[in-house]
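Hi everyone,

Forwarding the result from last night's run.
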Amino acid sequence: MVTIALLLMASLLIILAGYKWLWPRMVLSIEERRKEGYQSSPDYAVYLGKTGVALTPLRPAGVARIDNQRLDVVSEGEFLEKGVAIEVIRIEGYRLIVRSTSELK
């Protein structure tokens, strides 16, 4: 009986402390989210149509340098060697889909 009472009291304490003290430290408030400049994820749309070079073999995923940035990219399924010139042809969420520039011509 005492154990159940202690568990209930501990649960209540954690819930109350969480809302007043812990929760605001873990989650951004609506005002903080609305501040200018806050962005939850990078906008990869700026890379659409840009060219770069594969820094690792793409089979199909790998790393490429585009606009002087190291980015994770995915080829359309084909194997591309390291050093191949690539172009971003599509963006699906967080994935940059690339193709060899020699295949585009």
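Strands lie at 51-54, 61-66, 69-75, 85-92, 95-100.

Cheers,
N.
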